[in-house]
Amino acid sequence: MARTLLFPQGFFWGTATSAHQVEGNNIYSDWWKAEQEGKVPHKSQRACDSYNRYEEDFDLAKAMHNNAYRFSIEWARIEPQEGKFQEEEIEHYRRVIRAAKERGLEPFVTLHHYTVPQWFAEKGGWTHKKAPEYFERYVQFVVERLGNDARYWVTINEPLILLVKGYGSGSFPPFKRNNFLGMLQATFTMIKAHKRAYKVIHDRNPEAKVGVAHAINYLESSGGIFHVLQIPVVFVLRYVKDQWFLDQIKNSQDFIGVNHYRRIKFSFRRGSFTEGDILSDFGWEVYPRGMYHVVKSLQRFKLPIFITENGIANAKDDHRSAFIVEHLQELHKAIEEGADVRGYFHWSLLDNFEWAEGFHMKFGLVEVDFETLERRPRPSANTYAEICRTSSLEIDS
Ligand code: IFM
User: Fold this and answer.
1) Which of 307, 347, 351, 368 to mutate for ligand 1's pocket (most ligand atoms within 8 Å of CB)?
2) CB atoms within 10 A of CB 356
3) Are 224 and 267 in contact (CB under 8 A)?
4) Does 351 sit in the ligand 1 pocket, CB within 6 Å?
5) How far is Cα 129 from Cα 118, in angstroms, rounded to an integer?
6) Could you tell me the pTM of the whole model?
7) Which domains does the chain have, with CATH numbers?
8) Inter-axis angle of helices 131-146 and 87-102, nearest 10
9) Closest C-alpha residue for ligand 1 atom 9
10) What does the pLDDT look like over 109-153, one tens digit per residue?
């Protein structure tokens, strides 16, 4: 029997991108520099050229019946040299926001999505004790000018991923390996930076809604002979990676942004690892039930929740439609049980520059030909469009 799952009134349906991954030629950022120096395996170059083609991109989002769009403002464009702020770049983002709104897309603006200006990185980046001040100054400049143009603000995207990759595995700038002191310093400056940004945004626009986009993948014990002993360890790890940061910014957030992609298993023998029946091109397990568990676990914060990212690297597009439907079904179940979820942003609108994996990982509802920059919606874009159009899901029950 078919059943219709209706999402709440006013639910936001969107896609998400970030500046460095789609805009192209982000030449003043630390990532760009690392790419030129060969410290990361791929170069972003002109990426999707969305810096110039954003209207075409928004037409695609509108054709998908989206009513929201999450994107990031690039700090390195706004302040390419310390203290030298670029009014014309603000004007650019003003046009971006206007173009989104003209197409009925509510802008969700991220202020920091992995990349920072080179001058900031050279000073020591997030480990510099003045990092919160520098970030606040940039945010102040942006919100003085755009504070009334957008209502929803994400200060920092996935702080913990940045910290772990930047100071643990050393695969992201600033490429520090096992630098736990640096990781700790950067963690606390990010917390301070978020709090300052929260205040600055609210001083400018009391109606604004501010949060972080937190990476919360679902961690579970692998089972096996040590299962019972692994459970308490998983419990602690879950708290540390999923909720500790949110507790630190408890009184400085109006919503929780969740970036959820996959399940990760934990065992004493193998540490954290992936296995499963369906894996994405990235090797990530497709595990829709994780969405339900993650959202339920956040109910204790009593804050609205937005799924600020959820998606799959799937070049053939043979799993993406089912991925979307099944994750939304789990999300709906959590909503039915009282979770206050207000929106869902699919990652991503377009294939784009997937950091250390370059252009090989295809996360787009829309395929991009990186030779011609032609955009071609994949079949899964139709699936998503129909869900967004009706704000509902048809399922067989
Ligand atoms: O592409 C990234 C994005 O920048 C941050 N969240 C995860 C995505 C997929 O890896």
Assistant:
1) 347
2) 12
3) yes
4) no
5) 17
6) 0.98
7) 2-396 (3.20.20.80)
8) 60
9) 354
10) 999 999 999 999 999 999 999 999 999 999 999 999 999 999 999
